[in-house]
Amino acid sequence: MRSEAVILRARIVVPMEGAPIDDGAVVIQGDRIVAVGARRDLVPLHGEPTLDLGEVALLPGLINAHCHLDYTMMRHAIDPPKSFTAWVQRINALKRSLDNDDYLAAIRRGFRELRKWGTTTVCNIEAFPELMVELGPSPLRTWWFYEMIDVRHRHTTEEVVAGALSFFRRREAGLDRYGLSPHAPFTASVSLYQLANACAARSPMALTTHVAESLEEMQMFRDARGPLYDFMKSLQRPMTDCGRHTPFGLLWRSGAINRDWLLAHMNELRDEDFELLGQHTADELPSVVHCPGSHRYFGHSPFPLRRLLDAGVNVCVGTDSLASTESLSLLEELRSLRDSIAGLSGEQLLRMVTVNPARALQQAGQLGQITPGALADLIAVPTSGTVAAIHEEVVDHSAPISWMMIDGKIVP
Ligand SMILES: [Zn+2]
Q1: How far is the CA of 183 from the centre of ligand 1 (A)?
Q2: Gap from CA of 233 to ligand 1 centroid (Å)
Q3: Å from CA of 208 to ligand 1 middle
Q4: Distance 319 CA to ligand 1 centre (A)
Q5: C-alpha 45 to ligand 1 mean position (Å)
Q6: What is the pLDDT along the chain (412 residues), one digit of tens a residue?
């Protein structure tokens, strides 16, 4: 039986694929968008009830391409560190002081915070997948990335993957989707990345990892020295992969990562990395997620956004966790990015939290845009402006998002 359709009317509809529409309307049936256009064109064709949202811009729900909900309670828990390695050691100590109830509370609070700021889809790296049994269905569209680490672990890599697969079988429904996340080249071996690729080949799923986040990671891999090198060596990590390549170069050359991967950070890149990227067409390149607040907190080298865009890389924006940023607001992150890199348009910025992450998750046409056939994940932002300046006006919006729809249902 076909469900009843509804027409949403808004002052401006911002489809992200295609131009903004003044006095626009969107027809929703079930969980899908079936039509979008000017109200005067759509309303006479469809006799359905109209919900007039008033003086708002209606946009696709925002997609947070990198987050750790486990650490939502760690806001201001760690002062900006002198060294990335010191921060890793500090957060590991903090993690040991928390129990399952703390993490469950953190994840639930993180979902509330994401909802407040207009995020309808989140890529969440989950370090404690066993907690998910107790969580119940996610309130937002969530890609749960199983965090995989094989340094200093008694588990063999095969056991880590077996754990991941049993976790996937437990629940796969509603708004929940799954992926794999070898943590970073300094904590996950190339063979662990290759096992993740083998899993994804058998059963398609998203893949993400942290790469080239800090200068200390660059020193460790390229020069076989520095605080992270010394720390990992002290953990008995085999260091034979250090002293030749950059972190990105090591993973890319070995086939550990490919175009299917979403790479968090990529702050520290060298000319040789851009030479590797330059050998490929845009379709052959991985996606990158930049976290502006976390980047500023750590004081990393300037993010090479222009060079990545010139290479054809699909760039997304995420918040990272509250252990290294101030809020889970993606619009706040976009304003932070706009302040640090001149010349970015509002439309360019909004694409980094809509169509770009949708493409990175292999959800182009499904998420991040208001077009027929896409899922009905939408947010409304008050507007008193014009179609021409609407993207800028949305990026400037700093209040909580009062109206949201996910999967065709209004989220309270
Ligand atoms: Zn992260």
Answers
A1: 8
A2: 22
A3: 10
A4: 9
A5: 47
A6: 456 889 999 999 999 999 999 999 999 999 999 999 999 988 777 677 889 999 999 999 999 999 999 887 766 666 767 777 877 787 777 777 788 888 899 999 999 999 999 999 999 999 887 777 788 889 999 999 999 888 865 556 666 666 666 666 655 678 999 899 999 999 999 999 999 999 899 888 899 999 999 999 999 999 999 999 999 999 999 999 999 999 999 999 999 999 999 999 999 999 999 999 999 999 999 999 999 998 888 888 899 999 999 999 999 999 987 776 778 999 999 999 999 999 999 999 999 999 999 999 999 999 999 999 999 999 999 999 999 999 999 999 999 999 999 999 999 8
User: What are 48's two structure tokens?
Assistant: 């359905």
How many Å lie between the centroid of ligand 1 and the Cα of residue 68?
Answer: 6
The answer to whether domain 5-61+369-411 and domain 62-360 are alike in fold is: no
Dist. CA 162 → ligand 1 center (Å): 23
Using the mean position of ligand 1's atoms as its centre, give its distance from the Cα of residue 408 in Å.
Answer: 30
Q: Which CATH superfamily is domain 5-61+369-411 in?
A: Urease, subunit C, domain 1 (2.30.40.10)
Task: State whether the Cα torsion 290-296-297-300 is positive or negative.
Answer: positive
Q: Domain 62-360 in CATH: superfamily? A: Metal-dependent hydrolases (3.20.20.140)
Residue 306 alpha carbon to ligand 1 centre in Å: 22
Domain extents for the chain? 5-61+369-411, 62-360
